[in-house]
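Hello,

Following up on my earlier ticket. Below are the two sequence lines again, exactly as submitted.
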Amino acid sequence: MNIADFLIQTLNSVQYGLLLFMLAAGLTLIFGIMGVVNLAHGSFYMLGAYLAYSLSSMLGSFTLAILAGVVLSVLFGLVLERVLFRFFYQRDHLDQVLMTFGLIYIFEELRSILWGDDVHGVPIPPLLTGSIPLTDTLSYPIYRLFMAGLCVLLAIGLYLLISQTRLGMKIRAGAFNRDMTESLGINIKLIHAVVFAIGVALASVAGMIAAPISSVYPNMGAPVLIMCFVVVVIGGIGSVRGALIAALLVGFVDTFGKVLLPQVSAMLVYMLMAVVLLWKPEGLFKQ
Amino acid sequence: MSAPKANLEALPRSVQIVLALGLVALVVFPFVGSDFYAQMVTRMMILAIFAMSLDLLQGVTGLVSLGHAAYFGLAGYALAFVTPQDGAVSLWWTLPLALLGSAAAALVIGFFVVRTKGIYFIMVTMAFAQMIYYLFFGNKVLGGSDGLYLYFKPDAGLFDLENTRVFYFFTLACLLLTYAFLRRLLWSPFGRALAGIRVNEHRMRAVGFGTFGYKLAAFTLAGALAGLAGYLWAAQTGFVNPELMGFHQSAHAIMMVILGGMGNFAGAIVGAFAFEWLLHEFKGLPSLGEFNLGKHWQLWMGLFIVLLVSFAPRGLLGLLQRRHKAGAGHG
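Thanks for your patience. The regenerated structure is below:
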């Protein structure tokens, strides 16, 4: 492997890791703050991808599609939280697992009814097509750099929201002690709804920006969900920082595994998880 | 978290009578039902064995595994690998081999997963099962995404498993043996220790139980019994594919255990039958104008699951137990 190849694979690793982080961050926030295991998180990713597919052809602009998609995803998250998830915060994990598994079935079937079962492509916006040359023979697509950049911006935004704003303070207080926060007059139900909607929107945005390179297809949420689980287990449940580091780690192991050890690459990420479990059963950054 | 609620370990007389009637119905069924339905009931019985094996973890020990289908599928694949294209293999060495294979996989994976608790356990069992799923899905040598065919059922020597009715009764015998074994296990010192781990693992450790070993033993045993079900499934359907080990199959097993009521094995059997029957009904729904209701069975199953968990989280036997308790309170 020469330097240029190495550079390209490193960029791919970072880009994949950052995308995973967007998904895992929502999953880990929803678990850390509301205590809900959400198997349907992959469905939000799928929802985002299908929204990107429909909205970009309807509105004629990828940027507008993303903006409209975010609004729709937030609304969707708020409604879902209000009618269903809210009643499961205090329930057993087993009930949460089953309820969200039922949701996967419902979402998949609604997807099939609304969009059909075909694979669809989403065009890369014209501004972001093309590649940046790295050497005489190798280049890197601009769109992937855009994806990575957007993920970094959102990660910084998320960090600032949680650590620097009044809302973030309330979120952290609610995660730390729900009853005390509530008795101080903070509307914890509203906080939960907001956090849930943020989680849905992050997953949905990940699906939207991934759509042009991964295409849009049935059941696309399932493999992503498993990877998110691996990331969250490695990073420690509830830790956003842990999710970031674990996501990048998984991104590197998966990408370089496919290049260097293609025979066992499917297993490598899980072996990484097994090693972490032996060493730290509660993840690297357990809160 | 869910643990202490799992109960009804001692089955009330009314449930025992229902179970006995159910057994009579199962014995009579192949003589009155068609071959098609006999095969369907055979599959239900196989899944009942699978659900019972999960109940040992989920209901008795309080470990919710979302990757139990891996051990089910592995045994099926084991049979598919050793069955040649042109003849049957003996049941008497392939069945132990398949069970050992599943048990070994459960032992290795269990070594990692039983260190974790609660939500971690759920996520990690699922992740490892998916690892096995993708291993088989992606490797042409292992059948790939298409899976493998078995052209012959195992040769049992004394009886002919190619005969639908014989296979039915062989499966029924496996079901009864598994049930008797697990009920006996439930009341053994080992079973009591597992129930103790469910209720309060810290206390069990404080009184000197090495809970890691107990949990690992339960996980391995559950894997082996899931393997029994998987072996029968492969023999009966003549076909294995990665979906047998998939996440949906694992979730279905959890659903069966919940639907019946967990922690007593009888509920798992009832749940498996009820779930498969529902699946059959949903898939057989007619078309409503342009809209084919049966094709979209996942929608109805999804709605059913969400409604069940929302309103009757402890399943059919749970409802019964609630009535039972209410009755006892009045008396």
